[in-house]
Each structure stands twice: as C-alpha cells, then as structure tokens.
Amino acid sequence: MHEEKLKRLATMKKSAESGGGQERIEAQHSKGKLTARERIALLLDEGTFVELDKYVMHRSDDPSIPKLYGDGSVTGFGTIAGRQVFVFSYDFTVLGGSLGEMTGKKIAKAMDHAMKVGCPIIGIIDSGGARIQEGVSSLDAYGDIFFRNAMASGVIPQITASIGPCAGGAVYSPAMTDFVIMVENIGQMFVTGPEVVKEVLSQEVSFEELGGARAHGSKSGVAHFVAKNEYECFDRIKKLVSFLPQNNTEDPAIVETGDDPNRTDPNLINILPENPYQQYDIKEIIKSIIDNGDFFEVHELFAENIVVGFARMGGRSVGIIANQPQFLAGALDINSSSKAARFIRFCDTFNIPVVTLVDTPGYLPGTDQEHNGIIRHGSKLLFAYCEATVPKITCIIGKAYGGAYIAMGSKNLRADVNLAWPNAEIAVLGPEAAVTIIHRKDLKNAADAPATKKKLAKEYRDKFANPYIAAEKGVIDVVIDPMETRPFIIRALDALANKKEPRPWKKHGNINL
Fold first, then answer.
1. Which end of the chain is more exposed for a tag (fewer CB within 10 A), N or C?
2. Is 168 an annotated catalytic residue?
3. What's the pTM value of the predicted model, to 2 decimals?
4. Superfamily of structural domain 2-242
C-alpha cells in the first residue's frame, strides 16, 4: 500500500519536473534558451531550491487547454550565497508560460512569502502573456501580482530577469520592480507587438528593434542591465544581491575587501584635465576611490551623461552618483535626472549611503528639453536628494554651476558632508556666460572683444568660481587634496553610520512623476 503511494508520488514528481515534456524542452533549447528549472538551478546555491505548488493545475473547463503540472510557472525558495530568496520562473514549455488564474496564485503566494520573511523576490520572465482561454481570470491574476509589486516596493528588493517574450499588460510587473535585467536577442518586452504597430501605424519594426534588450537598455531605460547570455544574466543578479540588504529594516553587510581604507591616490588630480571643458571619464575617478576598483554600474547604456551604480568603500555598500563629462559635457537632462532620482530613492529605501561626485555645467538647454518637461523631470532629482535620509556625502571635483549645483546633492538639500577639490568651480553661471551678461556693454565696445572676454572670464574664475567662497559660507565643509578623497569619504561614512533624521509624518510625498 505504502509502496503504491510512494510510486505514485515519484511518477507525479517526474512528470512535474519534465515540464511540458521532452519535445518542448528540446524546442526551448533549440532557441538557445534554458528551461525554468535550469534557470533556477543557475541562480541559486546548489541543492537549496525547494519548489512550492509543483502539482498545481488550471481549473478551466476549456478542453483545449491541457492539464499539466505546474501550470506555466515554477516557484519556490532557496539561497544565493547563503542568503534566503524567493523565486518564480515562467515555464515556456508548459502552455507557453502563459499566465492563468492558478499561475497567478502561485506567483502571488511566492511574493507573499517573501514579504512575510523579509527577503528578495526574483522573477524570471519567459511567457506568452495572459492565457486567452481563461479570460478575465487571467487578467485578475495580473492585477493581483501588480498589487503585490506595489506593496513590496521599498520593503524587499524585487529583481526581474527578462529571458523571453513579455508583452501587453504583463510588462508592467517587471517595470514595477527595482531592477530589470534583459538578455540580448532573447528577452523582449513591449506593450503592443510589431504586428499591431504595423496595422495601426503602418510601421515595419522587428521584435528586437521594438522591445529588445538594447532598445530598452539604451533608449527607454526599462532595462537596468543588458546581459549577453543567460549565464551572465544570473551572475549579474548574484552580484547585485550582494550589495543589498534582505529588506528595508536591515543594513547591507559590511564585507572585508582587503583594500586599505586609508589608501590615497596622488594621480587622482591628473585624471582631471587642466581645461574644465575638456572631456574625461568620471569612471576612472570612481574606480580609484572605491574598494578594489569594483564598480557595479546600473543603467550603463541609458542617459550616459550621469553614472550610477553600487560599490564598496571600506567594505560598506554605497550608491555612487556622478556626472559624466564624456557625454553632453556632464549636463543634466530629462533622462539623467530621472535615472539618478530613481537610483537615489532605491538606495534610501534600503539603507545604502549615497556618494555624489559633481562635475556639471548645468541643465541641458533647448526646446526639446523644455517641451518634454525638463522642469518636471529635473525636479525629481531635487525631490530624491531632499527625501533621502541615508548618509549623503557630496564631493565637487569640477564644475558645479547654477541649478545643477543645487540639484547634485548640495548642502541645502541636506547632504551631510560636502567636500570640494581645490579646482572646483561653484558659481551661478560658468565664467564665460557670466561675463557675457555682467560685462555686456564693455564687450560690445571693446576693440578686441575675444581677448577682453577671456581676460574677464579669468578674473571671474579667480574671484568667484572657486570652492573657498562656498567654504566661507559653510555650504562646503572641507576643501580637500584630491588624493585624500577615498579615506575622507570612508571616515565620513563611518561617522555617519548611525545617522537618524526624523521627517514629518505623511503617507508618502507626491514626487512629480
């Protein structure tokens, strides 16, 4: 009797773990894609995955939908580097990974568990979308997932890997998570597919051009990371998780990195060109001051005029925000403001200190920027810095002009420690623009206007565009030798580790979305 029951269980287990069957598994592999269970095995520590709802089946009476164990998704829990996570992975071999009532319930259950436990939830997307035959039940299932995305936001880290199709309303769940990683030539996301675009707008566009990883990584900003293949994708997720706490009540772990916190770099100042308008790569400076030069960049291909990402300083996780003079001279625009604001808010939510490096000539001018809402989007950056209560350290290494000086973690936005290099230029306008306004008449009447303008600009730069006036007023705390940037920031982080900053009670602010 017992043997029969055990035999039945073994048969069911084998059937469930074979997904949609060997033929469909081979079809998945022929597309260069792994199966749902293979993906989970790559992501989690070996032997730690515990599957939930393995024997769930759909409840539809429609005979056209075969009843298969798992019903289109694999869900459960395990560990990454010994840390608890919950995971769900759409199984394309079972009904095309389509989402019906029971698939939705499985995913919702995994999300509920993650919330109760207080650990990251990781979703792996490879789905044909809503299961048409189940009608409104399928749509309701998406609604239940969206609600949990909103409730989990700011409570536990939510990470999405897009390794297959994701279309229609299904795309909004990944967009509501904290980070989206897409695999090139495999992951695709769009609200309306190429066929609809062609029918409605008479535009020919491929799946990859419309909603591929590169399109979302560089143009829309939907994808925070673009991976070459599935293996790289899961390596990125593991590294990302290493910088994060389990939930919003914890601090990220302090890790022994072996990099001396007191290390200085005499060459740091030489990275900065003598000409303040000449291009250079801010990532060279970032890599010099962080532990072992290990910078985990976020949104690398999107809004490249600002750089954001995770690193460690003195073993402590930090979020880095830095203007990038290699693109648009480091000016702030719509996309860079939104990109940095969202990253700052994530860091604040999960107790990760924010380190800001400033070298920006201001906001990008132009009718496109104004008409597309630079005022509205630019205000997000101000809001994010003001709202954040984590330790905030800002170092002005070059230009900091006008409203961009204020927006990039200034003292008045409640940055805790504001540093500047001796060559920092803090002013309402850049010298050339300033003298054009201040000395308009003199320049108009000058015999040699270019030479006069150059002379006046130098006088303005010497008199006004330096960090010492700001230091006199206390909005710059310390002017430091560039070589001391790393040890100074690390000491400040240590000093601010127990920072508490009360704010007025509110349900939430009303950021200008």
1. N
2. yes
3. 0.95
4. 2-enoyl-CoA Hydratase; Chain A, domain 1 (3.90.226.10)
